[in-house]
C-alpha cells in the first residue's frame, strides 16, 4: 500500500510533490519522512508521508550544521577568530602536540583527535563537556593540520568547548538563544520533555541482500581510524543507529549527533542563515557564508577512506552530494539519511528527514532526486 503524500507546495513546485510521491511509492510500506524547502526566506515545499507534520526525528550529523552556524555567528561578531590557536581559548588542548592547531584547522576536521584509544561510554558521548575533557589529553592520530578526517562523533564537542571558553556559555545555550528561539525552529539540541511525545524512534537499517553483502565485505577492525571515530573501539561499541533513541542523548543534545528535528526545522535554520525570514535579517552576512563555504579540506579523508571535501565544518554540499548546486553551498547530512543545506546563489534552503536508517549511512540516495527537483523549480520560478 503506497503512503499518502500530505502537505503543500507553492505554485511552480508541483513537480516536487510528484517527485516525492514517485519516490515514496517505491519505498517500503512503512516509510516515514518529511521534505521542506524555502526560497529567499519563503516556504515553498512542506511535504510528509507516513507520519505527522510535526513529528521529530534523530538527525545525527545534520546536527553539526547548527553547531557550525553558532561558530559562524561568533566569528562574525568578532568573539572568535579563525586563525587564533585553539589553545588561546582552551589551554589544556595543547597536550600531546596539539598546541599549534588553529580554530580554522579544527573546524576543517584537521585536528587528528577523532576519538580516544579506549573509546567513550554512552554517558560521555551524550555530554560534550565530558568528551572535551577526554579529547584534550588524547594524542592525535595524525600530525594536526597535515591531513584531515571526519571527526564524526566529536567535532561538536571540540568546537563547543571553544565556544564555552570564549563566551562562558555552552554551544547549545547560544544556539537556543540566537537561532532556535527567535525563529521557533523544530531543531533541538536538547529535546524538552514536553516535546518527547512527538519523537519518532529511529528504525534500524533494512538492507537488501545485495546491500548486506556490501556491508559484510567492508568490515572494520576495532582499532582502525573509522572504528575509533565511530566509537566501535569502546568496551561497549556504539550502535550508531540507536543513539537518538537514548533518552540521555536526546536530553543533552550533543552537538555532533544529538539533534532532534523535523524537516521544517532543518530547512528553516538554513533559510534563516542566508535569507530574511519573517522580517528578520539573515543571520549570516554574505562574506561569512562565503568564508565558511570555501573549500578548506579536499582530498583523501583518513576516516572515510574516500575523497571528501569540507568547508569550515560544513560539508561543501555542491561537491560532496549535489553538483547542480551553487559553489559555496553549506550544509550537512546525517547518518540516518537526513540532509539540509543552504545555496546562497539560488536562495534555496533544504531539509529532509526520514525515520529508517538509510543504506549505507549518510545522506540517503533520494536526496539527490528531491533536491534536484526543488532546485529546478527554484531556477524556473
From TrEMBL:
Keyword Hydrolase among record annotations: yes
Record domain Beta-lactamase-related: where: 34-364
MF term (GO), any: hydrolase activity
Entries under InterPro entries matching the protein: Beta-lactam-related (IPR001466), Beta-lactam/transpept-like (IPR012338), Beta-lactamase/esterase (IPR052907)
Pfam assignment, any one: Beta-lactamase
Alphabetically ordered keywords of this record: Hydrolase
Top-level taxon of origin: Bacteria
PANTHER family (UniProt xref): BETA-LACTAMASE-RELATED (PTHR43319), BETA-LACTAMASE-RELATED DOMAIN-CONTAINING PROTEIN (PTHR43319:SF3)
Protein name: Serine hydrolase domain-containing protein
Organism (species): Streptomyces venetus
Lineage summary: Bacteria, Bacillati, Actinomycetota, Actinomycetes, Kitasatosporales
